[in-house]
C-alpha cells in the first residue's frame, strides 16, 4: 500500500510539473497551424496579457462600410494557446460583414450599439436569422457561413468572441472574385453569367 501511494504521489508531482500556465506568443517566430511558439517566460510582462486596441472605432470607409479590429494571438500575444480571442465590429449605416467562415472557431456576437441583423446557414442549408439589439448575443457554430448587416441609421458596434486564439477567416465574396480564378470556372461553379462575374472581379480586384 505504501509503495502504491508513493508511486501515486510521484505521478501527481510529475503531472503538476508538466503544467504550463500560459504560452505567450513569440511573434518573431513563424506561426504554425497549432499557433505560435512560446516566448521565454523571462521575457513575459503584464503587457502581454493586456490589449487596448478594441477601445477605438475601426475605419468604416471601405466598400463594405464596416471594419473588424482583431484581438487574435498576432495582436494579443497573451491569448496564444488559450482557445480564446476577440474582435470589434464597427458597421456604418448600411455596413455589412459579408458571408464568411471561421474554420478554427465558434463565435459569439454581443451587440453594444445600434442594431445588427445576423445569421448563419447550417450544413443542411437551414437559415438562422435574427435582428439583434443592444445587449443581445448570438452564436455562430464553427465553420458555418455567417454574416452581419447594420440596420441602424448610424454606426452599429459589436464585440465578437472566439473559441480559438486564431479562428481563421475566409470571406466568400473575396474567395470567388478577388483572385485570378478563371471567369469560366467561377461561372461553372456558381451559375453566374460572365458579365456579372467580371463586374464583381472588377469591384473586388480580381483578374482573369
UniProtKB/TrEMBL annotation:
<dbReference type="GO" id="GO:0048046">
    <property type="term" value="C:apoplast"/>
</dbReference>
<dbReference type="InterPro" id="IPR014710">
    <property type="entry name" value="RmlC-like_jellyroll"/>
</dbReference>
<feature type="binding site">
    <location>
        <position position="100"/>
    </location>
    <ligand>
        <name>Mn(2+)</name>
    </ligand>
</feature>
<feature type="binding site">
    <location>
        <position position="102"/>
    </location>
    <ligand>
        <name>Mn(2+)</name>
    </ligand>
</feature>
<dbReference type="InterPro" id="IPR001929">
    <property type="entry name" value="Germin"/>
</dbReference>
<dbReference type="GO" id="GO:0030145">
    <property type="term" value="F:manganese ion binding"/>
</dbReference>
<dbReference type="InterPro" id="IPR019780">
    <property type="entry name" value="Germin_Mn-BS"/>
</dbReference>
<dbReference type="Pfam" id="PF00190">
    <property type="entry name" value="Cupin_1"/>
</dbReference>
<keyword id="KW-0464">Manganese</keyword>
<keyword id="KW-0052">Apoplast</keyword>
<comment type="similarity">
    <text>Belongs to the germin family.</text>
</comment>
<feature type="binding site">
    <location>
        <position position="102"/>
    </location>
    <ligand>
        <name>oxalate</name>
    </ligand>
</feature>
<feature type="disulfide bond">
    <location>
        <begin position="23"/>
        <end position="38"/>
    </location>
</feature>
<dbReference type="InterPro" id="IPR011051">
    <property type="entry name" value="RmlC_Cupin_sf"/>
</dbReference>
<feature type="binding site">
    <location>
        <position position="107"/>
    </location>
    <ligand>
        <name>Mn(2+)</name>
    </ligand>
</feature>
<dbReference type="GO" id="GO:0031012">
    <property type="term" value="C:extracellular matrix"/>
</dbReference>
<keyword id="KW-1015">Disulfide bond</keyword>
<keyword id="KW-0732">Signal</keyword>
<dbReference type="InterPro" id="IPR006045">
    <property type="entry name" value="Cupin_1"/>
</dbReference>
<keyword id="KW-0479">Metal-binding</keyword>
<feature type="binding site">
    <location>
        <position position="107"/>
    </location>
    <ligand>
        <name>oxalate</name>
    </ligand>
</feature>
<protein>
    <recommendedName>
        <fullName>Germin-like protein</fullName>
    </recommendedName>
</protein>
<keyword id="KW-0964">Secreted</keyword>
<feature type="binding site">
    <location>
        <position position="146"/>
    </location>
    <ligand>
        <name>Mn(2+)</name>
    </ligand>
</feature>
<feature type="signal peptide">
    <location>
        <begin position="1"/>
        <end position="17"/>
    </location>
</feature>
<feature type="domain" description="Cupin type-1">
    <location>
        <begin position="52"/>
        <end position="198"/>
    </location>
</feature>
